[in-house]
Known about the structure:
Order of helices and strands: EEHEEEHEEEHH
Number of domains: 1
Domain Plasmid pRiA4b Orf3-like: 14-166
CATH class: Alpha Beta
Strand order of the largest sheet: 5-4-3-6-7-1-2-8
Low-confidence stretches: none
Protein name: Plasmid pRiA4b ORF-3 family protein
Pfam families: PRiA4_ORF3 (PF07929)
Largest sheet: 8 strands, mixed
Helix content: 10-25%
Structural class: alpha+beta
Shape: globular
InterPro entries: MM3350-like_sf, Plasmid_pRiA4b_Orf3-like
Amino acid sequence: MPPKVRRITKQTLIYVVDIVLDNVDPPIRRRVELAGDSTLEQVHYVIQAAMGWGNSHLHEFEHKGLSYGDPEPDGFNLESETDTQLATLLGPGDSMTYTYDFGDNWKHTIAVHEVTQPEPGVTYPRVLEAERACPPEDIGGPWQYPGVLEEARRNPDDHELNWLLEIDPEDPLREDREKALAILAWKPLAG
């Protein structure tokens, strides 16, 4: 369940963050603005919405040898993502890793492009730029994706693969992603 909506104040720092899906060529990237005092749990939901993932697998953040995530699943020794804010780990030019789906191992580099002040009337988080659609889930990760996509192109009548051809890799900002970000929206400054 996404965290509750909160208000952006004049003291809130806005982080402009680049999210890049590693080991996929051509690159799949999002540039997102979000509050620096977002918890890593909130950052997780922003990544899920901005990239177009389905939030159906485990995840973790890694930074300077420490792992952050949901400490509830058995067998995981993680720092709590609900107790850690983005701004306590990263500043301008810093980065960390976010892994989604430990089976497919979708690794993302999260890099802070800049830190700015909030703009009155702007709703955060918001996607500023996007390059390419995210791959479908459960296809074997970044190493299997190119082969599966090529197989779908070679066999358009294969009903188990042809759904891949419906994905437009050049249309990364679908309406469902915008709706998902709207659910996470933090209320803008009043006037």
